[in-house]
Amino acid sequence: MSANQRFSIAAFQAAEAGISDVVGSLRATYAPDNPVTCEGGVVTEGAALPGQQEVTFSASGALSGSYVYWMECEGDQLVGFSRGQIDMGEDVSPVTRIVKLYLQPPGEGISTDTYYGIKADGDIVLRGQNVINGNIHTNSNLTINNVDGEAVGAITATGTITTSDKDLDVVDAETGECGSVMCAVSGADSMFIEPAIDKINSIIEGEEYQPYIVDLLTHPDYMSCDIDLEGPQFGAIYYCSDGRDLDVSGNFNGATLLSMGKIIHRGRSDLGDYNDEVEGPDSVDTQLIAVGNIEMRGNDDSYVALWSDADVVQSGTSTLYGSIIAGGTVTRAGGINFSSWDSYEGITFNRVKRFGNILYWVELESN
Q1: Which of 65, 131, 116, 124 is nearest to 94 (CA)?
Q2: What does the buried/exposed string (b/e) look like for 52-81 if buried means 16 or more CB atoms within 10 Å of the residue's CB?
């Protein structure tokens, strides 16, 4: 290795030390409840950004090195820089390496990890013709009929996988290797299934949700858990307590339904927000959460998250953009066209503290 290469590597190692200091400064400077907000190249909220910090050290022989790190707002994005430098002595230009970091400030964010795709603690049974764009996991056994050849995602089961589709690549987690885009793996590790009751309690007890909660058994407009909803619900949270079943009909969006018993939707349903100007919804803005079963008793075309501590049952064929979580089984009698959805806006997610971190980095031109 030439001397120039060694010096260049040493300069990059110095820049790496600066990267660690950027992250440390990011996490130490800002409180999660007062995150930095960059707008138009300036900090509009949160603590002031620290200025340039320089650290010097001795390199090999008579050489010396240093790194300088700092943060700034670039438009609406918080960025950091680290410049590593090896000084070669008088009359010789130093060797420098500069790294630019795109940063995520500490703050409070939402956790969408729960909304994995389709996951169940019990068996998953998907009849009919299925189109899968997203992931499926069961901690038990999976039965799936035909899968569309253009489907994309991972199918995993802790138990066995039974399929009538000859093109579906089914392998064992210990010994097999996937050879197709749609891969089905049996003998996989189990996955934690978050209890729906915990989510219900967090919403019912959450101070920020109180203005939106409608207790169906006590509200004068309802006095019953048998309701019909139509059109936008503007973030309303309909709650059926006392272990009763929530019977609902109609096509609606922008709502959360909570039940200590079952949730039963009778008839055909079109749930969730749909944007007529583009193909598909703005986001999944509707969720059904129940301690008992969730039963969809008709064909549906929905943009919704379904979450049950028991079983999720679909009687007809369905198109579902969103997610299904079941503490019991998932049964779709008529086939499903399923796509995991990235955008969940307006529904009640778990909020989590978020450490500051690096989103990605690039090296700038160095010498």
Answers
A1: 65
A2: eeeeeeebeeebbbbbbbbbbbeeeebbbb
Q: Are 95 and 9 in contact (CB under 8 A)?
A: no
Residue recorded with tokens 């679909």: 314
CB-CB neighbours of 45 under 10 Å: 11
Edge to edge, the sheet with strand 357-364 lists: 53-58, 64-74, 77-87, 95-104, 357-364
CA-nearest of 9, 8, 76, 19 to 53 is: 19
**CA pair distance 257, 246, nearest whole angstrom:** 8
H/E element, 348: none
Cα-Cα-Cα-Cα dihedral of 353, 355, 356, 358, to 10°?
Answer: -120
As a whole number of angstroms, the distance between CA 329 and CA 135 comes to 16
- The Cα–Cα gap between 324 and 303 comes to 11
The set of residues, in sequence order, having a beta carbon less than 8 Å from that of 329 and lying 6+ positions away, is 120, 122, 123, 124, 125, 140, 311, 312
- Of the chain, the end-to-end C-alpha distance in Å amounts to 17
* pLDDT per position as a tens digit, 59-102: 666 678 899 999 888 888 889 999 999 987 777 788 999 999 99
Give residue-wise pLDDT tens across range 212-264: 999 999 988 898 999 999 988 888 999 999 889 999 999 998 899 999 999 99
| Cα radius of gyration rounded to whole Å, the chain | 27
Structure tokens at 78: 């918080």
Q: How many H-runs (helices) and E-runs (strands) does the chain carry?
A: 2, 30
